[in-house]
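Re: beginner question about structure tokens

> Can someone show what the tokenized structure looks like for a real chain? I only ever see the sequence side.

Sure, here's an example I had lying around. Input first:
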Amino acid sequence: MTQLTFDQFVHPLSEFPNVVSLNGAEEPMLDMYTMASMILYSACANNNLGARENTLEALANNGGLVDVNSLFERCQMGDRGAILQTITLIVSSLETKIEHLKLA
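And the corresponding structure tokens:
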């Protein structure tokens, strides 16, 4: 099995290790790309089943014609291109969920 490090999962658009304050909120939080990186890292490196399910769901909902299982397997092997693509799809899923919450 490939030894994975969190550095492999940090997206170029991530603000890591900084935190952001969204819409002037007092509580700082991680930006979307850092959150997605953490979810994917947890799924791939730590075999977190909840994170894996969330990742596969995000890929299925936003991946189009992408073979989600193959893409996830490539992430587990440390394929940087697959990791970046997957993080982008997770971010898209997170943004969609936030928009739905704002509308509710």
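Each token stands for a local structural state, so reading them left to right follows the chain. The mean pLDDT is 85.
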